Amino acid sequence: MWFIDLLTRPTAIQAVIVLSFICALGLSLAKFRFKGISLGITFVFFAGILAGASGLQLDPQMLLYAESFGLVLFVYTLGLQVGPGFVSAFKHGGTELNLLSLSVVGIGTLMMIAMAMAQWLPLPDLMGVLCGATTNTPALGAAQQTLKQLGQPSAVAALSCAVTYPIGMIGVIIVLAAMRGWLLRHERAEERTADEEAFITSFCVCNPALFGQTIYEVVTGFEHSKFVVSRIWREGKVILPNRNTVVENGDRLLVITRRTQVPMLTKLFGRRDDTNWMEENIDWNALDAQLVSRRILITRPEINGKRLRDLHLRNRHGVTVSRVKRADFQLVATPELLLRMGDRVIVVGSRESIDRVADELGNVVKQLEEPNMVTIFFGITLGLLLGSIPFNFGLSYPVQLGLAGGPIVMGILIGSYGPRLHMVAYTTQSANLMLRSLGLSMYLACLGLDAGGEFLETVMQPAALKWIVIAVLIAAVPIVLVAVVAVFYRKKSLATTAGMICGAMANPIALGYVNDTIPGDKASIAYATVYPLAMFLRVIIAQIVVMLWFA
């Protein structure tokens, strides 16, 4: 029958049909929840295992291509998404996050070495279990290569990794889901949003040293403190300040700055008032009938990569740019701020002036609906080249960033610094989410299909039960310990902690679950912050442990 032949004979059409059906089935199951908990997109992996166990086989080259392309597409678009906030996150808290992630790596490695010393299992078995429990196939490749060079058996490492890999993938999700309630109850997050995040407050000018000075003189006199004066209240009237506006005694200033700069500015101006300007329901247009506050979308490509000062908006149009919204971040509109496509600029001024600014910046949503595919494909190419560069550290096996590491690093770089080279890296949130979901679904379907063929046979081996138990310990214990330290002692939010753990475990599937259950980009930013270093060190540590053990 032609239908049976279509599904069983390895062809390109068969591969597309099978993978599409697996993704559709898994994503449909992802909608079901038990007591509010769902494994989300991970169901695609289980659907793949079920299909593989039923005897479905794809052309090996087609399977490898789809799996690789899906992973590359996911990590690259993830890098593009978190790129704008990555640099700020790394500067302000990135070091601590990486130390926490290295704790996850270190605890798991020490557990594996202790088990080998206690002779629970031979080291090659345990090395494969460690790589499976942490879903790190590059580390497995490095360990196998070193074992072969030392004349040790390496096939058992691959077998134990294959059995425990599913444990590593779903183990992180199960632990995070089980700990979620406890972590939320004990969450005392004092994380500040990135230090560049805009904070709105107001001050009363009581410092005699400022009386008679212009706004320009005040701002340039404190260059180390970034702030913008948006409005001035004087004798019941609202003034839109410019560089020549003179500050007088008793003026009330509406200032956009950073939260960390508030104490310094309080000393500068004299007194801070108690008005909470960070409430979401403030009607800025009701503050004064003559001034309008409007959010303008940058959609003109020629604006991409320009600094705010280069536009001379205040001098030419008589408006004040108070802050810039980029993704989930509100940035202080300093003259040095580099603008990019998709930024939403908050402008204060008269209606006529703001209309002229809107025409200059674009403000046409339709122009952003089509993603810049040139940047996407060019970035993927550069990412794969970066991932293929061998780094030698005096070890027997060169270290590479690989299919996952290279594209995510390149995505971060283009997302962060692309506008400096006038590269339009902007994609709408819906487009980015669709590309990420497509890539991750393809990757999971192929992974499950590849593992499903020999999954049941391998699991039934006597040694497999021991591998599974050890994998559960190696996957769960470091996560529990570091999550408690991060939330309870280091006062990290649940989203940041979960993203950091997913990155330390090199687990994009768990990140997909976290993003489905926790709103915002904090988890993705934390994942991207720690992933490259954690993955890199796992590959190096695998070789060092094998060499020292058999030396």
Secondary structure: elements and pairs:
Blueprint: H1 2-8, H2 12-29, H3 43-53, H4 60-117, H5 123-133, H6 137-149, H7 155-186, E1 198-205, H8 215-221, E2 228-234, E3 237-239, E4 252-258, H9 262-269, E5 270-272, E6 292-297, H10 308-311, H11 313-317, E7 320-326, E8 329-332, E9 344-349, H12 351-361, H13 373-387, H14 402-417, H15 429-459, H16 462-489, H17 494-504, H18 508-517, H19 522-549
Antiparallel strand pairs: 1-4, 1-5, 2-3, 2-4, 6-9, 7-8, 7-9
Kindly describe this structure.
The chain is α+β, with helices and mostly antiparallel strands. It has a domain of 170 residues: 2-Layer Sandwich (Alpha-Beta Plaits), CATH 3.30.70.1450. 59% of the residues lie in helices and 9% in strands. The chain contains 19 helices and 9 strands. The strands form 2 sheets. A 5-stranded antiparallel β-sheet has the order 3-2-4-1-5. A hairpin with a 2-residue loop joins strand 2 and strand 3. Helix 6 runs antiparallel to helix 7 and helix 7 packs parallel to helix 18. The model has no long low-confidence stretch (mean pLDDT 81).
